[in-house]
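User: Teach me something about this protein's shape.
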Amino acid sequence: MVEITPFKGITYNKEKIKNLDNVMSPPYDIINTDMQNNLYKKHENNFVKLILGKQSPDDSENNNKYTKANQLFETWLQNNILIESKNDAIYPYKIQYNHGKQTKTMNGFFILLKLDPEYKQIKAHERTLSKPKADRLNLMKACKANLEPIQLLYIDKDDAIRKKIDKTIAKPILQVKGYDTFTHQLFKIENEKLISDIRKNLKDKVLFIADGHHRYQTAINYAEEQKKQLKTPNKNPAFNYRMAILVNMFDEGLAILPTHRLIKKDNLSLPELLEKLHEFFIVEEKDTKTFQGTYNDIGKQIINDISTDNKHKFALYCKNKYFILTLKDEKVMDTLAKDHSKIWRTLDVSILHKIILEKIMKINENNLEDHVKYTRVDGEAVKLVDEGSFNLSFLMNATKIDELKAIADGGEHMPQKSTYFLPKMLSGLVMYKMSSKKK
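Assistant: First, the predicted structure itself:
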């Protein structure tokens, strides 16, 4: 059974922070060093200082970015930079943005979600990596709080929950312009009957993790640690819950974008790689020297070139040129991934990882973190190769939402970073500090 509960949310104090835009942050996992530095300069109370503090050469076990985050968190609470709600509530959340030529609005709501360690009704579609989990666990242990949400999808074809919420909400308690230029609105509902109706509506649902696989598993790991330390039993401790945003899978404001692969590998021979690719793919060479425009323009052109409804196409980009790769026969996956389902074997991301990365380039789960990084920006997949930061990149088409659902339903996991949901949640809107127990 899916169990959700309202909570006493912590938000920035509008009386203390006159322009809330300046204290908001992107999610921790998309913040690079330049962005981190800019956010530090933007405002002394910017949220990045909590979720992604700077490391120092003199860091120690008792004085590091995690302990400093906790000290800041407590100081901001004491000084009323952050304020906690007096009553339990759920927090509806809307993001208004432009995608292509369309104006879209994503609808969701913040709640506390009871953990499902066995993943029976909360389904994951990606495996998690050890380094990000250790990082988020250290932060959670230091602050004893959920500073950022995870995002999960539920199925509501009639959109009944969203309609009930929209009838109740009026003016947002917070409205900010995010780093993404999107408009983010946070509302608050304390109506016990409506909250009870939503709880009943969701209890028999299956939820699918859209964003936050590492944070969700970290919450499970943290709960296991805390249970072992309890001297007296607590039937419903706060650590059994995780702050989350729930979004209807059929919400018209939700979109999935591709995540491109950046490759760094010593002694990589492009001619040798292309020769091996010819066995499995039709390879078409393109030259970018005659292209006009920015890196983003080149990236957009490459994505247009691999756009397809029924084929498996990728682009291999190296400096000043790229190669369109079209899979000859997907039956090869029956041999390379016979332990997986048919739907898994026909995912673009599975084909890329099994045929190109694992079989041809010898990059597997054991050395993936050493050789593969990720970007969601088409132009960045071009720019970082041209600048020499990476040997080459693979640009991809997006995973479809029905593919995600089928994989999660079947209990399988896609390769790392298979999905990127748009719009991305903004960090700093609302937080949750763990109390001793939940009702």
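Now, about its shape. The longest strand covers residues 102-114. The mean pLDDT is 92. If you'd like, I can walk through any region in more detail.
User: That's plenty for now, thanks!
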